[in-house]
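Narrative summary of target 7.
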Amino acid sequence: SREAVQERLLDTGAFIGLSMGFSVESILPGGDGWKSAISVRALHAKVRRALLERKGSRRWDVQALGIPINQEDLVATLLAFSVRSEMFVLPQCKRCWSPIFSLQPTSC
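Modeled conformation, tokenized:
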């Protein structure tokens, strides 16, 4: 649904913000960005494993579809989101996003 897509994009934006928008300490072990990255990686691994373990008609076809939630697709998603983030962000949040790309912290 449109709402689910919007929520997922906002989650991705929050991840980007934690990972690169506030401070170097955020991405060091124990920092908020680091914790967020670990959480996202674990979630993706669980979903990937669940998809690959499906049997019968619901089996994931690796030959046709490739590995689900692979790192290349994740990088492409983050790159696409980063390059044109404003088209995904709610209008009232845009002023919060511009500092992420200039590495200047702000509060909304």
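The helical segments are 2-20, 32-52, 62-65, 71-83, 94-102.
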